[in-house]
Task: structure prediction
Amino acid sequence: MSSQYDTTETLDVKGQSCPMPIVKTKQAIDDLEAGDVLEVVATDSGSISDIQGWADGTSGVELLDQVEDSDLYTHYVKKTE
Amino acid sequence: MSTDNPPSSVDADGESEFDAAEVQALRERVEELEASMAELDDDDDRQKLTIVATQGSFDMAYPPLILASTAAAFGWDVVVFHTFWGLDILHEEKSRDLKLSAVGNPNMPMPNALAALPGMDAMATRMMQKRIDENGTASIEELIELSLETGVDLQACQMTIELMEYDEDDFYDGVTTGVGAATALQHMAESDVQLLV
Result:
């Protein structure tokens, strides 16, 4: 799948379930610089709602997009500060 | 001073109606209030969650750890106070051998009379463990390590440690010991969210 976002890093959390996709996303974002975009690839269908909730409730991150493709859920999270 | 006066600080004689000392006292009071508001604003920056974990069965160990590690990912200040059977979750050896109870568990596909037979708890636990592995759900140990790594304060109730005759060294590295109900209450009072599991 080609992405319209210039992703800095890809986090693979396929096969992992709640709360791992969120916790690992947070850890990966912490390691990035402001302006970087993290691509998170998950198989947990709950990750759509969870990543939205996490991004809403967390300062310094912005959820750019979420793409659902068969059993894969791909999220693009930008570190804004 | 009457409040009926027109909003002018100078009366007919050209003299100030306000007492200088009174103005000074008001100014000081405003400064004091501003300072305490600033303090409150600082505290509000971070949400705080306190969970009291009282259960030590395999299934009941998960909710506090999942919520705690997720809240930490939100940047919240998180305390989990473990007391009574909840202490077993932090006990390095016991945490690897937590059991699911087959008796009195309405989700078990068997009557209580059968569930009470020897070996049934172990069987129920094995079934659950298999499901957890297949689902990619983290182990208790992983969640504890993740929680500690992300700054969750996992606390072990001192009274229960002594009651159960546990040793402080029995717990995972990084677990807080030497705390009691008063500490837990203090955290609960400061928290935005409090949960008893």
Remarks:
- The mean pLDDT of chain B is 87.
- Chain B touches chain A at residues 66, 69-70, 72-75, 135-138, 143, 146, 150 (CB under 8 Å).
- The two ends of chain B are 58 Å apart (CA to CA).
